[in-house]
Write a structure and sequence with these properties.
By secondary structure, the protein is mainly α. The protein contains 2 helices and no strands. This is Chromosome segregation ATPase.
Length: about 130
Amino acid sequence: MYLPPAGAAPELEGEVRALEKSLGALRAAIAQAVRGRDDTEADLGHLRRRLATKIAEALPDDAAIRGRLDSAIDSAFATARTTLAAHWQEITDTLTDACTKVDGELTAKRRAHARAEEESREQRRQRERLTAG
Protein backbone atom coordinates (compact mmCIF):
# COMPACT_ATOMS: atom_id res chain seq x y z
CA MET A 1 0.00 0.00 0.00
CA TYR A 2 1.33 3.41 -0.98
CA LEU A 3 1.77 5.81 1.93
CA PRO A 4 2.43 9.39 0.89
CA PRO A 5 5.22 11.30 2.62
CA ALA A 6 4.28 14.11 4.95
CA GLY A 7 3.30 17.24 3.03
CA ALA A 8 2.62 15.26 -0.14
CA ALA A 9 -0.94 16.51 -0.63
CA PRO A 10 -0.09 19.28 -3.15
CA GLU A 11 2.08 16.95 -5.23
CA LEU A 12 -0.58 14.25 -5.18
CA GLU A 13 -3.21 16.80 -6.15
CA GLY A 14 -1.19 17.58 -9.28
CA GLU A 15 -0.85 13.88 -10.06
CA VAL A 16 -4.60 13.41 -9.62
CA ARG A 17 -5.30 16.27 -12.04
CA ALA A 18 -2.86 14.83 -14.60
CA LEU A 19 -4.45 11.38 -14.32
CA GLU A 20 -7.94 12.86 -14.67
CA LYS A 21 -6.82 14.66 -17.81
CA SER A 22 -5.27 11.47 -19.18
CA LEU A 23 -8.42 9.51 -18.42
CA GLY A 24 -10.52 12.10 -20.23
CA ALA A 25 -8.21 11.93 -23.25
CA LEU A 26 -8.40 8.14 -23.30
CA ARG A 27 -12.18 8.20 -23.12
CA ALA A 28 -12.28 10.71 -25.97
CA ALA A 29 -9.94 8.46 -27.98
CA ILE A 30 -12.26 5.50 -27.40
CA ALA A 31 -15.22 7.52 -28.64
CA GLN A 32 -13.19 8.60 -31.69
CA ALA A 33 -12.22 4.98 -32.41
CA VAL A 34 -15.88 3.96 -32.30
CA ARG A 35 -16.75 6.80 -34.67
CA GLY A 36 -13.86 5.76 -36.91
CA ARG A 37 -15.14 2.20 -37.03
CA ASP A 38 -18.63 3.41 -37.91
CA ASP A 39 -17.28 5.82 -40.54
CA THR A 40 -15.19 3.05 -42.08
CA GLU A 41 -18.23 0.80 -42.31
CA ALA A 42 -20.25 3.59 -43.94
CA ASP A 43 -17.44 4.38 -46.38
CA LEU A 44 -17.15 0.74 -47.41
CA GLY A 45 -20.90 0.53 -47.96
CA HIS A 46 -20.87 3.68 -50.05
CA LEU A 47 -17.94 2.46 -52.14
CA ARG A 48 -19.62 -0.92 -52.64
CA ARG A 49 -22.78 0.77 -53.93
CA ARG A 50 -20.76 2.99 -56.29
CA LEU A 51 -18.96 -0.03 -57.72
CA ALA A 52 -22.23 -1.87 -58.25
CA THR A 53 -23.65 1.16 -60.06
CA LYS A 54 -20.58 1.49 -62.31
CA ILE A 55 -20.65 -2.22 -63.13
CA ALA A 56 -24.34 -2.02 -64.00
CA GLU A 57 -23.65 1.00 -66.23
CA ALA A 58 -20.71 -0.72 -67.93
CA LEU A 59 -22.50 -4.04 -68.52
CA PRO A 60 -26.19 -3.24 -68.94
CA ASP A 61 -26.89 -6.27 -71.11
CA ASP A 62 -24.80 -8.94 -69.38
CA ALA A 63 -26.44 -10.02 -66.14
CA ALA A 64 -24.24 -13.11 -65.80
CA ILE A 65 -20.99 -11.14 -65.77
CA ARG A 66 -22.53 -8.48 -63.49
CA GLY A 67 -23.60 -11.23 -61.11
CA ARG A 68 -20.11 -12.76 -60.97
CA LEU A 69 -18.50 -9.35 -60.49
CA ASP A 70 -21.02 -8.43 -57.79
CA SER A 71 -20.29 -11.69 -55.98
CA ALA A 72 -16.54 -11.11 -56.15
CA ILE A 73 -16.92 -7.54 -54.93
CA ASP A 74 -19.27 -8.63 -52.13
CA SER A 75 -16.71 -11.19 -51.01
CA ALA A 76 -13.85 -8.66 -51.10
CA PHE A 77 -15.86 -6.07 -49.18
CA ALA A 78 -16.95 -8.62 -46.59
CA THR A 79 -13.31 -9.52 -46.02
CA ALA A 80 -12.36 -5.84 -45.80
CA ARG A 81 -15.17 -5.13 -43.33
CA THR A 82 -14.18 -8.06 -41.14
CA THR A 83 -10.50 -7.13 -41.17
CA LEU A 84 -11.06 -3.44 -40.54
CA ALA A 85 -13.62 -4.13 -37.81
CA ALA A 86 -11.09 -6.39 -36.08
CA HIS A 87 -8.45 -3.65 -36.24
CA TRP A 88 -10.84 -1.02 -34.88
CA GLN A 89 -11.83 -3.44 -32.10
CA GLU A 90 -8.17 -4.00 -31.25
CA ILE A 91 -7.63 -0.25 -31.04
CA THR A 92 -10.73 0.17 -28.87
CA ASP A 93 -9.70 -2.72 -26.61
CA THR A 94 -6.21 -1.29 -26.17
CA LEU A 95 -7.60 2.12 -25.28
CA THR A 96 -10.14 0.56 -22.92
CA ASP A 97 -7.39 -1.41 -21.14
CA ALA A 98 -5.33 1.77 -20.79
CA CYS A 99 -8.41 3.56 -19.47
CA THR A 100 -8.91 0.84 -16.85
CA LYS A 101 -5.28 1.08 -15.73
CA VAL A 102 -5.32 4.87 -15.52
CA ASP A 103 -8.63 4.75 -13.64
CA GLY A 104 -7.09 2.33 -11.12
CA GLU A 105 -4.07 4.56 -10.69
CA LEU A 106 -6.34 7.59 -10.34
CA THR A 107 -8.34 5.86 -7.61
CA ALA A 108 -5.13 4.98 -5.74
CA LYS A 109 -3.81 8.54 -6.04
CA ARG A 110 -7.12 10.01 -4.85
CA ARG A 111 -7.00 7.76 -1.79
CA ALA A 112 -3.36 8.68 -1.14
CA HIS A 113 -4.23 12.36 -1.55
CA ALA A 114 -7.10 12.02 0.94
CA ARG A 115 -4.76 10.25 3.41
CA ALA A 116 -2.11 12.95 2.96
CA GLU A 117 -4.65 15.70 3.57
CA GLU A 118 -5.99 13.92 6.64
CA GLU A 119 -2.45 13.45 7.92
CA SER A 120 -1.74 17.12 7.35
CA ARG A 121 -4.91 18.11 9.25
CA GLU A 122 -3.97 15.78 12.08
CA GLN A 123 -0.49 17.29 12.29
CA ARG A 124 -2.02 20.80 12.42
CA ARG A 125 -4.37 19.72 15.21
CA GLN A 126 -1.46 18.25 17.16
CA ARG A 127 0.56 21.45 16.76
CA GLU A 128 -2.43 23.52 17.85
CA ARG A 129 -2.88 21.34 20.96
CA LEU A 130 0.80 21.66 21.81
CA THR A 131 0.80 25.42 21.44
CA ALA A 132 -2.48 25.77 23.32
CA GLY A 133 -1.40 23.42 26.07
